[in-house]
Write a structure and sequence with these properties.
This protein has 2 domains: 10-216, no CATH class; 239-300. It is built from 10 helices and 6 strands. The chain has helices at residues 10-16, 24-35, 54-57, 85-99, 150-156, 183-193, 205-211, 219-280, 285-292, 296-300, and strands spanning 41-45, 60-67, 72-78, 113-119, 130-133, 167-172. The longest helix has 62 residues, at 219-280.
Length: 302
Amino acid sequence: MSSERRLVSFDWAMMKLLRNKADFVIFEGFLSELLHDDIKIKHLLESESNCESKNDKTNRVDILVENSREELIIVEVQRETEYDYLQRILFGASKLLLEYMEKGMPYSKVRKIITILLVYFDLGQGEDYAYQGRTEFIGLNKKDILELDSAQQELYQTEKIADIYPEYYILKINQFDDIARNTIDEWIYFFKNDRIKADFTARGLKEAKDKLDIMKLSEEERREYEAYLEGLHYQASMYESSYKVGEMRGKKEGKKERIEVRKEVGAKNKAMEMAKKLKEKGIDIAVIAETSGLTTTEIAKL
């Protein structure tokens, strides 16, 4: 670990350092390793987070890429817990699809949307740290997968239906065990640790190691980066504090309620025991009800 030079975090680099065409090689390397394809970036387009406030950017950063096949690729970093996150990313992809539809355009020209999510919180339940979501139509009876016919393959220039629908990749960064088993794991190691090991060979990492070296930042860039990190620490602290306080209050209130319930149950049991003894002695039910606080119906059942 000591021989690994500390690098700036990938999300800050997305905002500040990787928007020049000369640096596309870094994004191209990551995307190529993840998608198992030779990705060439045509443009970096205006992304949703660029229109939001500076404070929001410490929570979520995204970048929008158009590749050489005119597919749209969203790369998003999300650091804070967001319980409706899965629905929001669905909305984001749907909104993007509509924004890039032109009036009168045939449906065959609808853009392929690929959403890549680097999340630093525990999203959902699962043992893996890297997930892919694709759309497939599976037969209810024969369990076969619906395929494109030859004419449709020619129209869409692909063989699989899943290739024309939005696609999602979720990388759960904090769940990664720091063991790089393949080249995309090398990228995930970098996302988690802000370091790149000397023996890593994944495409784009060599350029990232050189470009994102903290020691190569200007004094102004270093101040901005330190302020960014401080913002992340502050937000994490605020979230943890509010969560812990809420959890402690919940436990305290729950304990108090349980004590009150036990007291009520105990008092009710004592009243029923007393009422039962009075009933056995032939005391009028109305008198027992007034004395014990029980209803005449409850006393009649004793």
